[in-house]
Write a structure and sequence with these properties.
The chain is an all-alpha fold. 73% of the residues lie in helices and 0% in strands. The chain starts with a helix and ends in a 6-residue tail after the last helix.
Length: 424
């Protein structure tokens, strides 16, 4: 039977979800000024929501069970993922890495037999999310969001286009990381338990994800083609092109830092050491840099840390719920549950269920990655995209409901691909 603290954590978790969907209301209150504008601004920061309510939970735990119990609970949580997302955001968003990705995007766009304006948009929404299978999903989200912000999201208005693009981006990043066994958080949480390696992921998940990503990006490019061609949605030439190019040696060194962080993703001391060295190098050659995303990365890390704290006490209802579902119901249930909880936490709890077969496991993970684009809390990289792009939307806030609606059709495309028959 669940304890009082577990009931309280679930209640606070539900409040945090409601708060997430209420962010635009607080943003409008903040922009209206007044003596409490600062408080409304804090409450309008999506990245702060789960961190704030996690602090409430810890305060209640300290009051009801003692400070020692609260500290012990924190000590038993794993904060590697929040720390990693913070570090990868800062490194991947550096100007030399953006220049490298820009070169790759332009090279791929030239190969495609379509107009360059269309090809650049398509490649940004397909190649970059799929690259998340190798450089990790948080890095892919950071890079794609920066490319979209600088090329297409700078102009005011055009909210419909921005929300459709955001929905496709979030879904494509969530499913684009499943070509390997280490890049997508919901896969990483179960790969060792389920004995899934990269070959398994590529043959069971990867080809489906590639098709779904390309369909989503292709359909959106087709829908927006008149506006992409006449330039009303922006230019595919990013603002970095107006500055002197970054020397290749600087790009190479930044790439080594990025590779080092990716390879040490499970070892926080190591990737934090890479982070310190990277900041020193970036400062030494700051003429080749944009401002580092330190604040944005910290806010995203705070969000994910709050999700870890609140999510750690949801096992009492979530694990039993997953265990009682048949494979097809599990798929749709995991897709829906992912919208209101982190998909990595969902797959981890599912991996603790005993006596499951291969089909049940596939449906669990497939559902979790399918629903990963529906909300900001559904997938660990989503807060990074939120943080980078929110300033391009009215009141500096992204409507969670409009995101949910915009991501619905790309999610159904992914669902169709992952539900195609396969042998297990």
């Amino acid at each position: 039977m669940a304890s009082f603290m577990e009931y309280l954590a679930t209640a606070l978790f539900a409040i945090a979800i409601i708060h997430t969907f209420s962010v635009p209301v607080f943003a409008r209150l903040a922009n209206g000024g007044g003596p409490h504008a600062g408080l409304w601004h804090l409450l309008s920061e999506v990245e702060a929501v789960f961190g704030v309510w996690a602090c409430v939970l810890l305060a209640c735990m300290a009051l009801l069970s003692g400070v020692g119990e609260a500290v012990n609970y924190i000590d038993t949580r794993n904060f590697t993922e929040p720390a990693f997302v913070f570090v990868i955001m800062v490194v991947a968003a550096s100007r030399p890495i953006i220049e490298l990705v820009n070169m790759a995007v332009r090279a791929l766009a030239r190969i495609l037999p379509i107009r360059n304006e269309l090809a650049m948009f398509f490649v940004t929404l397909s190649f970059v999310p799929l690259a998340g299978s190798f450089i990790t999903e948080p890095a892919a989200m950071t890079l794609a969001a920066l490319l979209l912000r600088d090329a297409y999201f700078r102009k005011p208005g055009q909210d419909g286009f921005k929300y459709m693009t955001l929905g496709v981006l979030f879904v494509n990043v969530s499913i684009g990381g499943v070509l390997t066994a280490y890049a997508a958080p919901p896969v990483l949480m179960v790969a060792q338990t389920f004995n899934w390696d990269t070959a398994y992921m590529a043959t069971h998940f990867g080809w489906r994800a590639v098709l779904a990503v390309c369909i989503n990006a292709g359909v959106l490019t087709f829908i927006c083609r008149p506006h992409l061609l006449d330039g009303t949605l922006g230019s595919p030439q990013h603002e970095t092109a107006a500055r002197p190019p970054v020397p290749l040696i600087v790009i190479a060194i930044h790439t080594l830092f990025l590779v080092g962080v990716v390879l040490s993703a499970h070892h926080p001391i190591v990737f934090l050491a890479f982070m310190m060295l990277f900041i020193g190098y970036a400062h030494a050659y700051k003429r080749h840099q944009n401002p580092l995303l330190i604040r944005e990365g910290l806010m995203v890390g705070f969000f994910l840390a709050g999700l870890v704290v609140l999510g750690g006490l949801q096992k009492w209802w979530l694990q039993d719920l997953l265990a009682g579902l048949s494979p097809i119901v599990l798929y749709w249930g995991a897709t829906a549950l992912t919208a209101v909880t982190d998909n990595a936490a969902l797959t981890y709890l599912g991996s603790l269920v005993e006596g499951t077969d291969e089909l049940w496991r596939y449906m669990l993970v497939a559902g979790a990655v399918t629903g990963g684009g529906l909300t900001v809390i559904a997938n660990a990289p989503n807060p990074a995209g939120f943080s980078i792009l929110k300033g391009c939307f009215p009141d500096g806030a992204i409507s969670p409901l409009k995101l949910l609606l915009s991501a619905s059709i790309p999610t159904l495309v992914a669902a169709f691909m992952f539900l195609l028959p396969n042998s297990f």
